[in-house]
Write a structure and sequence with these properties.
Blueprint: E1 2-8, E2 11-12, H1 23-28, E3 31-32, H2 34-41, E4 49-56, H3 71-82, E5 89-93, H4 101-115, E6 119-123, H5 149-160, E7 164-167, H6 174-182, E8 189-191, H7 193-196, H8 207-219, E9 224-228, H9 242-259, E10 264-266, H10 272-275, H11 280-290, H12 296-310
Parallel strand pairs: 1-4, 4-5, 5-6, 6-7, 7-8, 8-9, 9-10
Antiparallel strand pairs: 2-3
Helix pairs in contact: 3-4, 6-8, 8-9
């Protein structure tokens, strides 16, 4: 079974400092190159074989006055790393979409010059929580971008250019996201990482219900899909704790139920999951186990076909 990995990262903090990645990465994995990624994905459990991959930006955010990470330099770095490997790949790059459509156009053109036809979309992380700093990601300065007319104008531009938007936000932001993207049917939207379901928030009254309602609102949009990834965030230690694994499987299967397998895609999120102690055989072994009862067609969608369609990698069969 050939697979597409629609979410991986590369970095070299010695060459390109990025404090937004956090102290665990700085301490435990300051560099992760193309050879490291392909070596790790070469350990996929049978019968899986990697056909293509999508690199997703690691900028995280760019607050005014904050540490500046050059988003176009990252695109060049990734292309310089991956192109010599001969492995098919695409790019989801970072642009701050709320600084004016002219800014978006200019940075987009620079990404296109660096990545060419490999550019598939943009991610600007939106995770912001008014009452919990732990759920506000580095340099995400506010939580109202989804209602910002300048941000929305940039979303429209992405659709006009044939590009998608990777949506990473907290569950309470999904309702606003559904409203925003309903107005932009020509911009495909990919909900990231199980909509950032946070296992530490489960005691909060109604948390899972709001998460599911948010998924249902997004799934009502025919141009929306979702990545089943970063599962450790919703069920910490699931690779070692059977009760947490049951929880993780339940949330993954809920997402598949809501969106349908044809709009869901498994992703490695490597090497971030690796920093959490989850190796590739374990990660994809769980994905296989959790879907063992599904039809071959549904599993093909989850591991390959959805990502091929959404990121236009149809030749990677």
């Amino acid at each position: 079974m050939r697979i597409i990995d629609p979410h991986f990262h590369l970095w070299d903090l010695g060459e390109r400092p990025n404090p937004n990645l956090g102290p665990d990465v700085e301490r435990d994995l300051p560099a992760y190159h193309a050879g490291d990624y392909l070596r790790d994905m070469g350990r996929l459990p049978a019968p899986l074989e990697l056909a293509a991959s999508v690199h997703v930006e690691t900028i995280v955010g760019q607050m005014e006055g904050g540490f500046r990470v050059d988003e176009v330099a990252e695109t060049r770095f990734v292309c310089d790393q991956m192109a010599p490997m001969g492995h098919p790949f695409a790019i989801v790059a970072y642009i701050h979409l709320a600084r004016g459509v002219r800014h978006t156009e200019q940075v987009l053109d620079r990404h296109l010059a660096a990545a060419g036809e490999r550019l598939r979309g943009v991610r600007m992380i939106l995770n912001h929580h008014p009452g919990d700093p732990a759920l506000t990601w580095p340099q995400v300065e506010r939580g109202d971008f989804l209602g910002d007319p300048v941000f929305r104008e940039s979303l429209a531009l992405l659709g006009e250019r044939g590009l998608s938007f990777d949506l990473q936000c907290n569950p309470h932001q999904l309702a606003d996201a559904a409203t925003a993207f309903a107005d932009h049917p020509d911009t495909p939207v990919v909900v990231g990482h199980l909509a950032s379901f946070y296992g530490g928030a489960e005691a909060e009254a109604g948390y899972e219900r709001r998460w599911r309602e948010g998924l249902e609102a997004m799934a009502a949009l025919p141009h929306a899909s979702i990545k089943l990834s970063m599962v450790f965030f919703c069920a910490p230690g699931y690779h070692q704790d059977p009760s947490q694994e049951t929880r993780a499987r339940d949330l993954v299967r809920q997402a598949i139920e809501v969106f349908g397998a044809g709009r869901c895609m498994f992703a490695s999120n490597y090497p971030v999951d690796g920093v959490q102690g989850i190796d590739v055989p374990t990660l994809y072994g769980r994905f296989l186990d959790w879907t063992a009862d599904l039809t071959p067609a549904d599993r093909s969608s989850l591991f390959h076909d959805t990502a091929a369609r959404v990121y236009r990698l149809e030749g990677s069969a």
